[in-house]
Amino acid sequence: MAELLIEGLTKRYGAINAVEDVSLHVADGEFVTLLGPSGCGKSTTLAAVAGLDRADQGRIAVGGTVYFDAARGIYLPPEARGCGLVFQSYALWPHMTVAENVGFPLTLRKVARAELRRRVEEVLALVEMERFAARYPHELSGGQQQRVALARTLVYQPAILLLDEPLSNLDAKLRDRARAWLGALRTRLKLTTIYVTHDQIEALSLSDRVVVMNGGRIAQIGPPQEIYEHPADPFVADFIGTTNFVPARLLADVAGGGRAQLELADGQRLEAHSERPARAGSRVTLAYRPEHMLPATAAMPEGSVLRTRITSRAYVGGLWQVGLDLAGSPLRLEARQPPMGDEFSLWLPHAGGILFPGAADVAA
Ligand SMILES: Nc1ncnc2c1ncn2[C@@H]1O[C@H](COP(=O)(O)OP(=O)(O)OP(=O)(O)O)[C@@H](O)[C@H]1O
């Protein structure tokens, strides 16, 4: 069992709270991604687990072994933790073949030659690189080098796998392929994994659960679909996927789980589902995904029809990306047909919007 427990992890650099009271339980065999904008504390959290950096407060344990406990003064050095670390730079030895690179951690651990050869072959087969065993790193593509780096980590059977933006050095096409390959490998490996990225497609497609971080804290933890469909706050809604925000005012009290009656800045009215109770007169922010916003036609199901002004239109291959102004808020939607004229009649489903209390502090 290699479950990972992080409790109350805090790391400060002078006045900066790089990580602030982060608690996370990763189950044995679970693949969890830390996702968030640059500087939100992802790498600092990972470094604290690997032992590359000593946190100020908190506790970290893997499979019952305490790696770090600030209160009890416990701090295991990285080599005693046995974490498998892979970074974005593969750092393969240029003068060693693929097989020698992969076998190197076992040489350091004084594993007997026959056993070493067997394990190198096994792990190269796992990452589908057995045909390249005799090649040197400069004879491989970036994606292949990253597979070798992963094999070099897997060969010593780490208790947990820590991957810090492993695909970010690859170009877009290669990255797509590497992501699919990594997805297939993770289902075979079933190794407890923490994956750090700021690429939301990687996070959503690879993970059992996603941890969204903001300013050193955890903003939300959940399975990919939950994070996308039920973001906890405007920050998560804005960071994951594309979200259109519209400020509004409540016209009447609404109970949790009820239908809210709302008014926009220009006096237009609409309805939306509200998870939480809210009072008449309070300010709220509505969040809509582009897939929930459609041109209004006579046959639309339950929803609100609103007047908007077209501000831009661009053909993006198969679709038109349309910029709209709704009561002073910029919106973006995708349409199959190019919209005509200056006005656009927009349909917003009652159940499609997410209602957050207060005014959202998100960039337009
Ligand atoms: N050695 C250091 N000295 C001072 N500040 C640091 C140090 N390492 C990290 N920080 C700061 O701590 C915060 C968190 O950094 P961290 O590297 O964990 O972010 P990140 O989410 O991994 O970012 P990125 O996606 O850019 O790698 C940032 O504000 C960063 O500037």
TrEMBL record:
Keywords: ATP-binding, Cell membrane, Membrane, Nucleotide-binding, Translocase, Transport. InterPro entries: AAA+_ATPase, ABC_transporter-like_ATP-bd, ABC_transporter-like_CS, ABC_transpr_MalK/UgpC-like, Mo/tungstate-bd_C_term_dom, P-loop_NTPase. SUPFAM superfamilies: MOP-like (SSF50331), P-loop containing nucleoside triphosphate hydrolases (SSF52540). GO terms for cellular component: ATP-binding cassette (ABC) transporter complex, substrate-binding subunit-containing. The keyword Translocase applies. Pfam families: ABC_tran. One of its GO terms (biological process) is quaternary ammonium group transport. Residues 4-240 form the ABC transporter domain. GO terms for molecular function: ATP binding; ATP hydrolysis activity. Belongs to the ABC transporter superfamily. This is ABC transporter ATP-binding protein. It comes from Teichococcus deserti.
